[in-house]
Amino acid sequence: MNILVINSGSSSIKFQLIQMPSEALLCSGLIERIGEKDAILSYITNTVKLQKTDYISKHKQGLNKIVDLLLDAENGVIKNIKEIEAVGHRVVHGGNSFSNTALVTPEVKRKIQEFAVLAPLHNPSNLEGILVAEEDFPFAKQIAVFDTAFHQTIPEKARKYAIPNNFYEEQGIQVYGFHGTSHKYVSEKAIAYLQLEKSKIISIHLGNGCSMTAVVNGKSVDHSMGFAPSNGLIMGSRSGDIDHSVIFYLVDSLGYSLEEVNNLLTKESGMQGLTGSNDLRDIEKEAEKGNSECILALEMNAYRIKKFIGTYVAVMNGLDAIIFTAGIGENSSMIRKLVCTDMDFFGIDLDESKNEEKSQELREINSSISKVKVLVVPTNEELEIAKQAFGLLT
Ligand code: AMP
């Protein structure tokens, strides 16, 4: 079965065509800067690597270009649109309505729209991707895979905020959790690698967005993001945890509007706010040159991760492994080292030369005396979406 996986963002569409159950990747690609004159379309198959700049005004036009590429006589990977039997969509927020992957129905679309208030940057473009795919792939089943689904197992004591109960019961104000597709994928890989029947794992997803999950026996039991993908760790441009009194102070004493506060905390904070860049590669280069702001920002970033490790060891009463994943987690030996230094009380001991090795494979980077395994597990949210879509349809 050929499954097209679509991750439709506000100005981008990522896609992969995956053959299941073999998991063979037929092609992958990305359209960035939708709505701008110089949108970039990249497309990779086993034999070709293309990049074009074009004006792509809307998602519809972007998806049409993807269809043209898939069917292209020279560089395409299918001959007929009917060869795509399912389209798997990443949907960020499924509220409490979805603990599993779902076949898209009018009711499912209505729910995704309803939860757009909880994920205004993500759900509207995820839904747009579904609507356009329904038109472009009328023969395919449309499947929605929710980032929040993996976290539906978080117990109430960790899920509820300590505010009056009616906000939880009537308004759904609670921890939802995010990056679930990634945390599920990498923790399952780790459990299979470690061959553990019972396991206590901390999954650390460090990309543009960053989050951590405590995973007991394959199930999420606590998570660093909450109601929206904004709190917890320090991220590219999001502050992560901050005392909510700061928001009142900004509004009441400094005259900020709520929109300005939102912008400040989600787009101008985090590593961006601390260093002027949200790209960790630039920050690391500057730190190596001795830039004290960048050195401190990296230390703050790692310090926050350490605090969550401590919290989750306490919550799980033990720890078998920690996993680093996503752009930073997979590539930044510097962040991994900062996180794992002075953690011998927890039985975490890094092998510094293994930490420096570059690889695209799952790898173990702890020393031989480390009680806890330290793993780098490349995430693959697209493959996880294809697996879940395939699982639903077979
Ligand atoms: P993601 O959201 O998973 O694509 O991750 C994006 C983040 O990964 C950005 O902050 C990049 O700076 C970071 N990143 C990507 N490659 C590297 C690398 N080789 N070293 C350090 N950070 C990296």
Automatic annotation (TrEMBL):
Pfam families: Acetate_kinase
Positions contributing to substrate binding: R90
Record-annotated site: Transition state stabilizer: H179, R238
Ligand binding (Mg(2+)): N7, E381
Signal peptide positions on this chain: none
Chief location: cytoplasm
GO cellular component: cytoplasm
Cofactor names: Mg(2+); Mn(2+)
CDD domains associated with the record: ASKHA_NBD_AcK_PK
Pathway(s): Metabolic intermediate biosynthesis; acetyl-CoA biosynthesis; acetyl-CoA from acetate: step 1/2
NCBIfam families given in the database record: ackA
Name of the protein this chain belongs to: Acetate kinase
